[in-house]
Amino acid sequence: MRHYSTIALCLLTIVFNFSVQGQQLGLQTLYNQNNYMINPAAAGLDNCFSAYINHRNQWVGINNSPTTNMLTIDGRLGTAHGIGLDARMSNAGLLKNLNAKLSYAYHLKIGTNSFLHAGASLGFIQQQFRANDAIASDYSDELLLQGNQSDMGFTSDIGILFTVPRFKFGVSVPQVFSSGLNIDYQAGKNEFELVQHMSVYAQYDVVNNDNWVVAPSVLYRNSDFNGHQLDLGAEAMWNNIVGAGFMYRTAYGMSGILSLNIQDKFKLGYAYEFGGSKTLTQVSRGSHEIMLGIKLCKSAENKPLEFVPEPDTSSVVDIPKVDSIPQIDPIEIDSVVDTPLPEPDPWIIDLDSLNTAFSAEDRLIRYDLNSAQKVTSNNQKTVTTSVAKILKDHPDLKVTVVGHACGLGTAEFNQMISEKRAKDVANEIKQMGIEASRLQHEGKGESQPLLQNNSEYNRQKNRRVQIIFTK
Question: Which of 87, 187, 213, 255 has a C-alpha 20 to 30 A away from that of 149?
Answer without folding.
Answer: 87
